Amino acid sequence: MKTSVIEARALGCTLRGGTVILDDVSLAVGEGERLALIGPNGAGKTTLLRILAGMQKPDRGTVSLLGRPLAALKPAERARTAAVVGQTDQPDPRVSLWDYVGLGRIPHSGLKSRVEEWGILNTALARTGLDHLRHREMGSLSGGERQRAQIARALAQEPQVLFLDEPTNHLDPRARSDLLGLVAELGLTVVAVLHDLALVPDFATHVAVMNGGRLVAHGTPAETLSPETVRAVFAVEVLRFPHPRERRELTVFDRPVSFSRKRFQ
Ligand SMILES: Nc1ncnc2c1ncn2[C@@H]1O[C@H](COP(=O)(O)OP(=O)(O)OP(=O)(O)O)[C@@H](O)[C@H]1O
Questions:
Q1: Using one digit for the tens of pLDDT, what is the confidence trace for 88-144?
Q2: Residues with Cβ < 8 Å from 33, sequence gap 6 or more?
Q3: Residue 42 Cα, ligand 1 centroid: separation in angstroms?
Q4: How many independent structural domains does the chain possess?
Q5: pLDDT-derived band of residue 265, with 50, 70 and 90 as boundaries?
Q6: How far is CA 100 from CA 78, 92, 104, 164, in A?
Q7: How many Å apart are CA 115 and CA 132, to the nearest integer?
Q8: What are phi and psi of 203, to 5 degrees?
Q9: Looking at the structure, do residues 149 and 250 belong to the same domain, yes or no?
Q10: DSSP code of 138?
Q11: Is ligand 1 within 6 A of the CB of residue 42?
Q12: For a pocket test of ligand 1, which of 21, 45, 87 has the largest count of ligand atoms closer than 8 A to its C-beta?
């Protein structure tokens, strides 16, 4: 059996007015697993991701990272283990890409020689295909390049775990699958909030389905993206059929016919 890298027990989160936004969520993420957190808007995905990454304290329950309680890890120690790519990173537009990626080295400062540090930054830029843009200012990068820059900065942290909050936002369809392909090739343990269900089966080894603050399904993509679960949680239909040219199955998440009629008639 694989070692659990992340273990969450009975997590709960309640807003001041008493609304429960995370309710008794327990899950484990094994080494090298890529867990997709999916669910409708407001289901609690970002809240769960932030708690698993140690960016937010739960009101109830515990999280351990590599067998140690998250609450006991110092921020720099945590940052050497886990990197977070959030939705709202707004770097200073005048900072060069090289310096921006270099921010990922802060948790390691003083631990390696300058030559080793440069080597790590060069590798992070090369792996994300950004080598040729190293001298460019962050403000001059396209949305897709900025998204990859965030991944490069996270790689510079040399983490064992990568937390991603909707990393494919603002990307065109090809760039979406390229970015997730890149993340999958890293071989790290990954937890990613994803909205585009069509990308989940190829990317994720495991899926956690959230709805109304609860974990309603957790397992492999085939187990969790069943027509019943998808219909109940997202109110869309799952259709699977053979690819017309390739030896693989296509999965389409189709909105209900009644919805499209109402909208376009
Ligand atoms: N700090 C906060 N104050 C008030 N409400 C909050 C706070 N954080 C989260 N919520 C509420 O908790 C619920 C879950 O939010 P969360 O961002 O975790 O959902 P999500 O599944 O990531 O949503 P989305 O898919 O829309 O990004 C939402 O109703 C949100 O408005």
A1: 678 888 999 999 999 998 888 777 778 888 899 999 999 898 999 999 999 999 888
A2: 2, 5, 189, 190, 205, 206
A3: 5
A4: 2
A5: very low
A6: 20, 9, 8, 18
A7: 20
A8: -85, -45
A9: no
A10: G
A11: yes
A12: 21
Do 248 and 179 share a domain, yes or no?
no
Same domain, 167 and 200: yes
Mutate to test the pocket of ligand 1, among 46, 50, 51, 193 (most ligand atoms within 8 A of CB): 46
Q: Supply the CATH number for residue 32's domain.
A: 3.40.50.300
Any ligand 1 atom below 6 A from CB of 161: no
Q: Look at residues 113, 82, 88 and name the one whose alpha carbon lies nearest to residue 188.
A: 82
Same domain, residue pair 121 and 190:
yes
Q: Which contacts (CB < 8 Å, 24+ apart) does range 115-120 have?
A: 120/156, 120/158
Do 171 and 261 belong together in one domain? no
User: Do 137 and 262 belong to one domain?
Assistant: no
Domain span holding position 141: 4-234
Question: What is the distance between the alpha carbons of residues 220 and 201, in angstroms, rounded to a whole number?
Answer: 9
Taking alpha carbons only, the member of 160, 113, 215 closest to residue 4 is 160
Whether the per-residue pLDDT at 1 is higher than 70: the answer is: no
pTM of the model: 0.90
Tell me: do 100 and 177 sit in the same domain: yes
Residue by residue, DSSP assigns 93-134 as TTSBHHHHHHGGGGGGTTSS-HHHHHHHHHHHHHHTT-GGGT
pLDDT digits (tens, 9 = 90+) for 224-248: 999 999 999 998 988 888 999 999 8
**pLDDT per residue over 37-65, tens digit each?**
999 999 999 999 999 999 999 999 999 99
Here the ipTM equals: 0.96
User: Phi, psi (5° rounding) for residue 169?
Assistant: -55, 140
Same-domain check for residues 130 and 180: yes
